[in-house]
Amino acid sequence: MENKFTKNICCIGAGYVGGPTMSVIAYNCPEFIVNVVDINKQRINAWNSNDFSKLPIFEPGLEKIVKKCRDRNLFFSLKVEECISEADIIFISVNTPTKTKGIGAGFASDLKWIESSARQIAKFAKGHTIVVEKSTLPVKTAETIKLILNSSKQNNKINEDTHKKNFSIVSNPEFLAEGTAIEDLQNPDRVLIGGEDDYSIDVVSDIYKNWVDPDKIITTNLWSSELSKLVANAFLAQRISSINSISALCEITGANINEVAKAIGSDSRIGSKFLKAGPGFGGSCFKKDILNLVYLCRYYGLKEVGDYWEQVVDINQWQQRRISSLVIKNLFGTLSNKKLAVFGFSFKANTNDTRESPSINISKDLLQEGAKLSFYDPKVKEKQIVIEFDKSVEEIFINDTALKAAEGADAIIVLTEWEEFNYLDWKKIFDVMRKPAWVFDARVYLDKENLKNIGFKVWSLGT
Ligand code: UDX
Ligand code: UDX
User: Fold this and answer.
1) Which pLDDT band, with edges at 50, 70 and 90, does 113 fall under?
2) What is the atom index within ligand 2 of the atom nearest the CA of 244?
3) Is residue 11 among the annotated active site residues?
4) Per-residue pLDDT tens digits for 380-389
5) Which residue lies with its CA nearest to atom 20 of ligand 2?
6) Fewer CB within a 10 Å sphere, N or C end of the chain?
7) What tens digit of pLDDT does each residue of 286-302 get?
8) Ligand 2 within 6 A of 265 CB?
9) Hey, how many other C-beta atoms are within 10 angstroms of the C-beta on 202?
10) How far is the CA of 94 from the centre of ligand 1 (A)?
């Protein structure tokens, strides 16, 4: 069956990046076989579920693509070793969390999964294999991977196969944003491919040329590609911290943050994107990648540069504390015996991902002050919320509707910009709350005047 395929691609890691990226490659390249492998059985089972609404990741458009390609040229399995041995091209898409202990703890990325993947590749790959770094990595990680791959000849018993074994490393960072992953993959602003030899760069470029305009494919050396990914995320996050810092100034001076964002964003040199003020950036990448950049700068003796970028993360934390303090202050300085409804737990709309979500820190601050929290999120499951808090069922309630979450609450705190929040029956919600009923709109998303007319007391960030 495999003979009809012209290329064999394997991806290690069936997560938020590996799953959607490989699905889109399989969709656009029916002549390639794409095997996505993972060590997590539950995740693989979910990818293989007959009920497509049970895929482990929620992304608009993903279900349709998986439906079309799965078991055609897209396969999800636990067969890591077998799929590595059959592959011409191997993408590494495993997670690279911030280290929690040892040298660089709190800043540097933990590369243990990258290392173990490289060791598996070194052992099981056959012939010439192109290894593609898809995970976001510190600059110079390719050097480590290369070392591991090339030492395979010393580790393995020398036989004819071992001699034929050789590797090229390519960096091909992912720029997809969650919630728009499929759209971003189908119509990318650019595809970045860094490598050391033209042949491997061309092979990886050819995959994307099946659906991406060749002018959008940027090729660089390995290190520029690795660094560009960190810098792109740092610049995006910096814009969010910049606008959030100004949101506080707007509240004091009577300016309106959305008006300021529009005014400055219309300058084509600044541009309008990533100027939405809110409760700070979340997600698995921004904080991790900036801290990684800071670590790198300090490691190479560039203290001032590291300090500069660290401020982006500091302002983000400050914004979250600022919001929780404001809620407490407006509720007469105490939250004991008060019920607060939290609307939104994912780190942004259209995803069920809660990693580094601003809702987590803000909720923790409020719980610390004695509040009872009542959550509603249209996509995040109950256990995913509960796991974040070491609290009893008397302090945390998870609801399946916004109305239930608001019952008896003193305040609603809007932390994710789910579209449906705009269409709720706010009059009905007002009626079931304890008065004075507050709405704290940390996403500057709701119609403030409408809420005021209903009778709510409203605080809207940056206004
Ligand atoms: C990605 C990127 O790869 C990471 O560098 C980026 O900074 C964040 O996003 P993501 O796909 O979001 O990671 O992570 P996750 O959803 O946790 O998926 C990683 C998968 O790799 C998991 O399913 C995990 O089980 C799997 N894995 C991990 C392996 O299959 N083998 C391993 O050795 C380690
Ligand atoms: C980000 C990058 O956009 C993507 O290119 C990279 O590959 C991975 O990291 P992601 O984290 O999925 O993607 O989402 P993104 O849309 O960038 O949002 C990140 C956080 O910033 C969210 O919490 C979001 O709410 C917040 N944000 C974004 C703002 O507060 N204001 C904005 O204007 C934009």
Assistant:
1) very high
2) 30
3) no
4) 999 999 999 9
5) 281
6) N
7) 999 999 999 999 999 99
8) no
9) 13
10) 3
> What's domain 8-220's architecture?
3-Layer(aba) Sandwich (3.40)
- The ranges assigned to domains in the chain are 8-220, 223-463
Best residue among 180, 235, 286, 292 to mutate for probing ligand 2's pocket (most ligand atoms within 8 Å of CB) is: 286
For residue 9, which phi and psi values (nearest 5 degrees)? -110, 135
Q: Is 88 in the pocket of ligand 2 (CB under 6 A)?
A: no
The rounded distance, in Å, linking the Cα atoms of 154 and 417 is: 54
Measured CA to CA, the distance from residue 160 to residue 117 in angstroms comes to 23
Ligand 1 pocket (Cβ < 6 Å) reads 12-18, 38-40, 43, 93-96, 113, 116-117, 135-136, 284-285, 288
Strand-pair partners of 76: 36
| C-beta neighbour count of 81 within 10 angstroms | 13
* Residue having the nearest C-alpha atom to atom 24 of ligand 1: 13
Cα 283 to ligand 1 centre (Å): 14
Same fold across 8-220 and 223-463: yes
Query: What is the DSSP pairing of strand 191-195 with strand 217-220?
Result: parallel
pTM exceeds cut of 0.85: yes
Q: Which CATH topology does 223-463 take?
A: Rossmann fold (3.40.50)
pLDDT of residue 2: 47
Cα separation, 254 vs 155, whole angstroms: 67
- Given a contact cutoff of 8 angstroms between Cβ atoms, the answer to whether 250 and 294 are in contact is no
Work out the average pLDDT over 427-437: 98
